[in-house]
Design a protein that fits this description.
- By secondary structure, this protein is mainly alpha-helical.
- 61% of the residues lie in helices and 10% in strands.
- The longest helix has 32 residues.
- It is elongated and about 70 Å long.
- The model has no long low-confidence stretch (mean pLDDT 87).
Length: 185
């Protein structure tokens, strides 16, 4: 996702300052799957303002300079919905897929189902590919680099765990019942 879309996403949740937008990517809801720096957030906010997708208001603070608070316009909300309607890039540790699923309530359920199903297939395929490569390496009799072996095993574990998790939780998300599993005692 480009930073402009990431700013749209934070502002979709409510008005925010540039600092609050940055915090959403450092320790907030997007910290695990997206990143945005101050150096990219402020130019993106300027573009949103110039394109009429956001508006800003200066608010007074006691003993400090005014802060600029941004909010989406109707056009910004439309732009956000259009942006999350695009297919995500394949994951590279940060995950566009998780970003979109965070907004699953804003997407048609058939789109959410298709997204989950495609990622389950992809994760399984990736895990199978790595397992096949590992088997080929073992069969070759060549020396195996322990670091590469660990990394390829980690990849298999991550892809298998991701696929299993999506399979186990797919129906709960698609049913939209919003109930969380009971906490372990």
């Amino acid at each position: 996702m480009d930073v402009k879309t990431l700013c749209l996403a934070v502002l979709f949740k409510g008005e925010a300052t540039g600092y609050e937008i940055k915090k959403a990517f450092e320790e907030g809801p997007f910290a695990h799957f997206q990143r945005a720096s101050f150096g990219s957030i402020y130019p993106a906010l300027s573009r949103l303002l110039a394109e009429g997708l956001a508006e800003a208001e200066a608010r007074e603070q006691d003993g400090r300079p005014d802060k600029k608070v941004y909010r989406l316009t109707a056009a910004g909300r439309d732009a956000f919905h259009q942006a999350i309607g695009q297919d995500p890039e394949p994951d590279q540790f940060r995950s566009d897929m998780l970003f979109l699923l965070y907004f699953a309530r804003e997407l048609p359920m058939d789109r959410v189902a298709d997204l989950i199903d495609r990622y389950i297939d992809s994760y399984r395929s990736q895990a199978e590919h790595i397992v096949a490569c590992r088997a080929q390496r073992l069969a070759s009799g060549e020396e195996i680099d322990p670091g590469r072996w660990l990394v390829s095993g980690f990849g298999v574990a991550i892809y298998q765990a991701a696929a299993d998790y999506l399979i186990e939780n797919r129906d709960r998300l698609l049913s939209g019942n919003g109930r969380l599993p009971e906490a372990a005692e």
